[in-house]
Amino acid sequence: MFGSRKKVRFAVVGGGQISQQAFMPGIGRTSNSELAALVTGDPVKADKLAALYGIKAWTYEQYGDLLTSGEIDAVYVATPNFLHRDYAVPALEAGIHVLLEKPMASSVEEAEAILAAQRKGGAKLMIAYRLHHEPGTVEMITRARKGEFGELRYFTSTFAQNVREENSRGHNGYWGGPVPDMGTYPLNAVRNLFGEEPLSVHAVGTKTPSRGFNFHDTVAVTLRFPGERLAQFTVSYATAPSESFTLVGRNASIHASPCFMFGPKVGIAYVEKTEDGETEHRFDPVEQFGNETEYFSDCILNDRHPEADGEEGLLDMQVLEAVARSLDTGKTVMLEPRTRKRSIEPDQALKLKPAKQPTEEDMINIIPQSA
To answer: Which residue in 85, 226, 257, 301 has the fewest CB atoms around it within 10 Å?
Structure first.
């Protein structure tokens, strides 16, 4: 398919903040990927971003033509969550590889439709869990799975930010809100740290009186895992920024912060505590979006199955949907026992140097996410 060409040609689907701030600059750090096209409904973004990156812009109405044009090999889908299926399914059925932003979709049914399209078309699908390629995160997960902290007992986490109601995240209901957007991070972290899938979910949500969100803007979630392990996390769209998690085992605990965010100055770090004292582990900032793209393109070029595949995305989706049911009913939701076929491998950690990111003022026609 690629012949002597050694780079995977990507189209970005959606010209919002995450694309402009992170993916489009980050792909330039890779050795095996290149930006080839942009799909957007905004003519100003189309003109300016196409000129900035020397690429061709397509409208959403032209998406089908792009998929059969021969000008791209893969798409990075970064639309609002409720549109993921609309752009992932046609690409996969056309044999175009898909790097899909998390959460995978806005329902389990949609996620299963995306997986079915992947099986039908045979192209590769990877969910954009960028931290699966960040060295500090991979080290913590690898050490936890090897038993270096002892038998793991519980996990707690906070991930919060102050989001503008005008931003697309602020008015698209539960699936545009803090649980799928931010809760996916602690959920995915604890699933991989424990190496287990949760058995039950209970959630409590609140709505800040002074804010205009059409969902619970602050949510606390409790998960019960096999072996009587517990995990809790709280996410919010209505507070000062905060991000951390604590993992406690019988022999040691670790407290990680920063642990979920990205940027040229964001290096993941954690403090390990044992009866002998504390040890701080700090990692240099890396190009997280470039890392995941480098990994995915390597899988495409060498015909390898990516680790963070559709199954990984679906497992998170099943929990996120259960959180929604618990918020609606006020009851604990039981989950079917499940197991994960794959796990994060140490060699997935990559160390591309961070790309320079545009400021909110530099980005084109966006409503900034942060209030």
So the answer is: 226
| Cβ neighbours for 116, distance < 8 A, ≥ 6 positions apart | none
Asked if the peptide bond before residue 103 counts as cis, ω within 30 degrees of 0, the response is yes
Tens digits of residue pLDDT in 162-182: 998 877 776 788 999 999 999
Q: Each residue of 68-102: pLDDT tens digit? A: 999 999 999 999 999 999 999 999 999 999 999 99
Residue 178 host element (H or E):
helix 178-178
Number of residues written out for the chain: 371
- pTM summary value: 0.96
AA letter at 80? P
Could you tell me which residues come within 8 angstroms of residue 51 by beta carbon, excluding any fewer than 6 positions away?
none
Per-residue confidence (pLDDT) for residue 212, from 0 to 100: 85
Cβ-in-10-Å burial (0-12, 13-18, 19+) of 339 comes to exposed
Q: Give yes or no for a cis peptide into 258 (omega within 30° of 0).
A: yes
Provide the 10 A C-beta neighbour count for residue 200.
14
Q: Where are the alpha helices (DSSP H) in 195-335?
A: 288-301, 310-329
How far apart, in whole angstroms, are the C-alpha atoms of residue 304 and residue 74?
15
Strand order in the sheet with 97-100: 56-58, 33-39, 8-13, 74-77, 97-100, 125-127
For residue 370, what is the DSSP state? B
**Are the CB atoms for 25 and 52 separated by under 8 Å?**
no
Phi-psi region of 150 (alpha: psi -120 to 50; beta: other; left: phi over 0): left
Strand bridging mode 33-39 / 56-58: parallel
Q: Give residues with Cβ within 8 angstroms of 55, minimum separation 6.
A: 35, 36, 37, 38, 49
